[in-house]
Amino acid sequence: MNNAWHSKILRLAATHNPSSDDDWTTTETLRTDLRDFLGSPPIHGIDPALFDRIADWKLRRQRARTEKHRKMINPEMLASITRCAFDLTHTDTRCLAIVRLRVLSSLPGVGPGMASSIMALVFPNQYGVIDYRVWAVIFGDERTQFSATDYIKYLETIWDFCSRNNWLPQKADYFIWLAYKK
Fold first, then answer.
1. Quick one: 110 exposed, middle or buried, by C-beta within 10 A (0-12, 13-18, 19+)?
2. In angstroms, what CA-CA distances link 151 with 50, 145, 161?
3. CA distance 118 to 85
4. Three-class DSSP category at 73
5. Domain definitions of the chain by residue range
6. How far apart are CA 116 and CA 103, in angstroms?
7. Rounded CA gap, 92 and 34, in Å?
């Protein structure tokens, strides 16, 4: 595997202060609000207001593409499915990630990108967000569709980078995303 992106990310992290970045502070605020609402560990499911904020955070200007599908999600369905995903446990972290991703992706209008966003915001020490930008930086491949297998490939790469650099996945995810923007 080509790890040339590692040094690029480490250089960027050495010169960039996330706390001065609106994207980082927005993420931290949303993550804190989710933790306060759900509990730590999460004991509730997500409510529609928080779900809308996650959709805004992840999808930004692309939100309209799947909005009609997400409108079919009622508050009870949203709470039940997200609570189910959060309650899952397994000794195999890859299996747990795949199952959580698939459970969250069962919500209408929620694909792997949005599902991984929910996972990364609720469990920032475990997950990152699958996105065409991070994929392009790490794998040098432009794509917009991702499977559960792709997500595991991405996570394994992030987990390896994090273990080598004593970082959390949220930090790695942020700097990889930032590297694409720059």
1. buried
2. 23, 11, 15
3. 10
4. coil
5. 4-181
6. 11
7. 25
Structure tokens at 173: 């995810």
Q: What confidence tens digit (pLDDT) does each residue in 11-25 have?
A: 999 999 988 888 899
The tokens for 8 are: 């690029």
Q: Give the dihedral of Cα atoms 143, 106, 87, 59; nearest 10 deg.
A: 50
Who's near 9: CB < 8 A, 6+ residues apart?
137, 161, 172, 175, 176, 179
For the chain, the distance separating the N- and C-terminal CA atoms, rounded to the nearest angstrom, is 23
pTM as predicted: 0.91
Question: What angle, rounded to 10 degrees, do the helices at 132-139 and 148-165 form?
Answer: 60
Locate 62 and state its tokens.
């692309």
CA dihedral sign of residues 155, 148, 94, 79: positive
